[in-house]
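**Fold in tokens:**
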Amino acid sequence: MRSVAGTLFGAIDLRRGAASFLHTQLYDSLRELILDGVLKSGQRLPSTRVLAEELAISRTTVLTVYDRLNSEGLVYSKTGAGSFVSSILEQRQSTLDETLARESAVPTAAPPLSRAFRGMYRRLPVRVELSDPQAFSTAIPAIDVFPMDLWSRLVARYSRRRDLVRYISSKGYAPLLGAIAAHLRTERGLECSPRQIYITSGAQQAFNFLAEILLDPGDAVWFENPGSRVARNSFSARGARLVPVPVDDEGLDVQQGLAAAPDFKLVSVTPSHQQPRGSIMSLSRRLALLNAADQANAWIVEDDFDGEFFYAKQPLPTLFSIARNERVIYVGTFSKSMFPSLRLGYFVVPDSLTERLDRSVSSYLPAVPLLLQAAVAEFIDKGHFATHIRKAKRVYRERYQALADAVERHLPDYLELIPTETGFHALALFKQNFDERRIAELAMERGLLVRPLSNYCIEPLPAVRGIALGYGCVTPGQIEASIVELRQVFASGG
């Protein structure tokens, strides 16, 4: 205990020559800190010698103050240990709280939340947060094949660099911007310069920011139905008027969107891997969407959440790549291509937007830690990212096939798996009339995480029921065993 000096009191300002004596000033200061609850019950005070030295006063003055506080029951002493704040006030406050709770007849109502948030909250499904990979999580990639040892060494090396502890522009770390631009050009065929890229703390932050700069409350926004909940929540919170647009095997149905809201201000799409159907938007639909956006003078937000993972054929060009007019904003993330807790994403804007964003981005977009950006930049530049993507593609192809085979063997009477050629989740439609949420609840009891199709919908799909099954974070053997467990859920009747 003698090695512990006690609380620091650097904020106590004793004024020599003031009307009151030094011991009175010190007593008033300490008493106020105790009564206000700043000093907690049991908190150790500095020794009289230490406090006298720090405040440049005599030890006798401190002894006088401590004795007075002790006599009032605010402080107590332990022989050989020092002086401590008494618990008497804490006991009195506890008694007072109990009395007030008994005597309070009218509960205090909390101030209301915004109308936009209340409307969005009512539509949100119950979310289950998991600490470990679990079949069939749709959000967790193949963490088991990520080169974590290599990544750990990389981060450890950068953590020792003093030049990476400074502040950084909200736009991002220049080497990372260059690395992303090169990756997009070679892997996704997307031509852009580093100045068009902005780093975010995950895709969610990108959508939040884009909602702020692109939309006014009440603007019509096309959304795939079913579609991504991540982007939908951001635009809904902005007060946008969400317009559900059906999707099929070719992606978003542009004609249906025009029939519902020809005056749309923005459309949010997942053309490379429709969330959650898994389909790829056809070239004809892509061109139709670009034409519709041109006619309406609307923005297109292209959510390419797992676009690197095409494992069956070459991907179609991104909407950003084929747009004639500068109206497409591309959003990417490393949470799916590396690991979720990285919380690193980015968006790419048309060149015409960069000057205005560069002048304002620091006021609205918090910067991502520099050390993290530097490590990812080297991870990409040295070829580690490309190596991991190639390996992950092979793994996902194998795991998807394991899922398809297991569904065919064990659940042919219950599920129809919609084929997919990319990513690490697939949608399975019910062949019988089961309650989606009941199936999800029973599956959870068996340690299986399945997402009801309705979770992705703005409006219910008539006579269509299903569940999304992720296969990225589980091995083929685990997939087989988990599908057998899922069969028991369906066999029990849901």
User: Anything to note?
Assistant: The domain at 119-124+147-384 is CATH 3.40.640.10 (Aspartate Aminotransferase; domain 2). The longest strand covers residues 241-248.
